Amino acid sequence: MTTSKAVKNVPPHPMDSLLRTERIPHIWCPGCGIGTVFSAVISAIKNTGWDPNSIAMVSGIGCTGRMAGYIRLDSFHTTHGRAIPFATGLKLARPQTKVVVVSGDGDLFAIGGNHFIHAARRNMDMTVICVNNLNYGMTGGQQAPSTPLGAKTTTSVNGAPEEPFNFSYLASACGATYVARWTAMQVRSLRSSISEALEKRGFSFVEVITPCPSSFGRRNRMGSALEMLKFYQGRSVIRGDIDPKDASMDIDKEIVVGKFVDIERPTFLDHYEKFNHPQMPQWRSLHADSQKAR
Amino acid sequence: MVAKEVLTGTHFMNGDEACCEGALSAGCRFFAGYPITPATEIAESMSRRLPQLGGIFIQMEDEIASMAAILGASWGGVKSMTSTSGPGFSLMMENIGLGICTETPCVVCNVQRAGPSTGLPTSVGQGDVMQARWGSHGHYEIIVLAPASPQQMFDMTIRAFNLSEYYRLPVLILADEVVGHMNERVIIPREDEIEIINRRKPSVAREDYLPYEADTDGIAPMANCGDGYRIHVTGLTHDDRGYPAMNAAAQEQMIARLVDKIRNNREKIISTKNLYLDDAEIVVVSYGISARSAMQAVRNARDEGIKAGLIVLETIWPFPEELIRSVAPGAKAMIMAEINGGQLVLELERCACGACPVSLVSNFGGAIIHPNLILNAISKAAKGSI
């Protein structure tokens, strides 16, 4: 790790107000796709124009989990797989806060898979951004629920014997109100999808296919970070109108990208309020500012 | 009609319901949980009562999620709790550690049943004493309360919230199946008679606030999410700013404070009820439902002319080390009564430090300890044959 002296005397960046600049440089490897996603998240948050004090970021464990440590928002770096249930408690305690969950594919869909599907089913009002780098990066490149069949990782040296999940399809099947997938090369589309997801009421989900050149790319002979970026982009086909079950996520054939779901559905709190309202005359006033802040 | 927060009056209710009412009286407005015998009635009561008070009840997908959710809710500024029993308690351990490390006030009530594993779901046990103390990985201090009646379920749940808010950590209530399910009289005082402690808020300017910089008593004021301080909270070892600090010196500093804030305040935290201790030759030590068997046994022993005394541990962690050290030299013997193979008796032996013999009256769970078993042990000890 380089020292922070190296970045002294650099003029402020437009995004600095949302960065914990005193924590830069970050821990991510050169060529990692997380930085691109992080930058897209920050731009999208800026574009909303919301008071930063009304937005919170919650993350799990792993490379992407470290995002929460670099953003200048109320930010919570929790336990492995548990960002979503932590965020659920935070959101229900403070409905006026916009809650954004960022984490990796292993965190959200292996150890945290159960929480993901139930939060989507409940339509918990939060935005979940998954940086999908096809392996566990932080621990040195192990097989994940996203790892393509046959791909080499440190725990599948002869090729992964499992078929991966299709996260976007899973999210839509569980009831997410917004689902989009992009590769890290498609920055403008990614940024606009994250903006839409943030503005969406309900459980919104954005999946980003990112290069992990240090681990996944190296073991699967995919070349440099730039080559990986171009490879994923080259495999991608934009199909916004497609049924999510057909939104193929296969790096050997086709990575279908685009916005797959954008629907309206009552949230957990909508239902909770509806069923309990006769008993709770003070409910509206207690949560009145929840409408105002957003 | 607006529902009442504090149900002042005399009630006939079970311990689980009393726990719920204690929590609501303490200001709890968020409950996340998962059904499990014999703690389910706490969740059921909460699901009925919380909406009446504008609070949130959510049934999560498991106990891991429940524990995570109450931590999140606490950072959202709402007093929160969950309840469970053995298997669920095991699942909560990792996030209890997150609560310790991030200093998050919340309450966990474990209505103990006999284990290990699924064990005896509908029968009593006290086998989670060491799990409550050490169940999450790493080194830390914890506060654990042990109610022995529905009334204490009410009173101690309030105290658990007060301790958690003051000392900023998850406070555990180790109840048991009998205390949870038995119906007894519960007197709920007037609202103005209930002492409520709320977390300390930062008093410095936002730019000067260090989230983990402690006041002189070791407790750091806590900014909630949305207060404008833009805090960072992590389960990684962190510095005063809350930022990860990956080195031994930071670990030393952080853990020392987490440990000291409890150890240095243990006199204020520890609570015991001492009976006939002044002239006691045989001192029984017990907690939870077993303390009631012990109470009967000690009274019977007194009737038989034996100078027996009783220490009821209302807090089992921190353990009342000083009290035991002061009592042991004057005692002929000490006896621990607990429903497990002998867990807290180890701590009793450690603290008695050889000053008097220590023995155990116990079973492995499934039934309470009959007072006569404790009485027999007292009689034997009085005759010097321990």
Description of the structure:
- Chain A is α/β, with parallel strands linked by helices and 294 residues long.
- Chain A has one domain: Thiamin diphosphate (ThDP)-binding fold, Pyr/PP domains (Rossmann fold), CATH 3.40.50.970.
- Helices cover 34% and strands 17% of the residues of chain A.
- Chain A is globular and about 60 Å long.
- Chain B is of the alpha/beta class.
- Chain B has 13 helices and 16 strands.
- Chain B is globular, with a radius of gyration of 21 Å.
- The model of chain B has no long low-confidence stretch (mean pLDDT 97).
- The chains are: A alpha/beta (294), B alpha/beta (386).
- β2 of chain A pairs parallel with β10 of chain B.
- The number of distinct β-strands of chain A equals 9
Largest sheet of chain A: 9 strands, mixed
Question: Any idea what the CATH architecture of chain A is?
Answer: 3-Layer(aba) Sandwich
CATH class of the largest domain in chain B: Alpha Beta
User: Mean pLDDT score of chain B, rounded?
Assistant: 97
Shape call of chain B: globular
Oligomer: heterodimer
Give the averaged pLDDT of chain A, no decimals.
Answer: 93
- Report the portion of residues of chain B in β strands: 15-25%
**Fraction of helical residues of chain A:** 25-40%
Name given to the CATH homologous superfamily of chain A: Thiamin diphosphate (ThDP)-binding fold, Pyr/PP domains
Q: Structural class of the helix and strand makeup of chain B? A: alpha/beta
Note the total helix count of chain B. 13
Structural class of chain A: alpha/beta
Topology:
The complex is a heterodimer of chains A (294) and B (386).
Chain A: H1 34-48, E1 55-59, E2 74-77, H2 83-93, E3 98-104, H3 105-111, H4 113-122, E4 126-132, H5 167-174, E5 178-183, H6 187-199, E6 203-209, H7 213-219, H8 225-235, E7 236-238, E8 249-250, E9 254-262, H9 268-276, H10 283-286, H11 289-293
Helix pairs in contact in A: 1-6, 3-4, 4-5
Chain B: E1 9-14, H1 15-26, E2 30-33, H2 40-49, E3 56-59, H3 63-75, E4 80-84, H4 86-102, E5 106-114, E6 120-124, H5 129-134, E7 143-145, H6 150-167, E8 170-176, H7 177-181, E9 183-188, E10 232-234, H8 248-263, H9 266-269, E11 272-275, E12 282-286, H10 288-303, E13 308-313, E14 315-317, H11 321-327, E15 333-338, H12 344-352, E16 358-362, H13 371-382
Parallel strand pairs in B: 2-3, 2-4, 4-5, 5-8, 7-8, 12-13, 12-15, 15-16
Antiparallel strand pairs in B: 1-9, 5-6, 7-14, 11-13
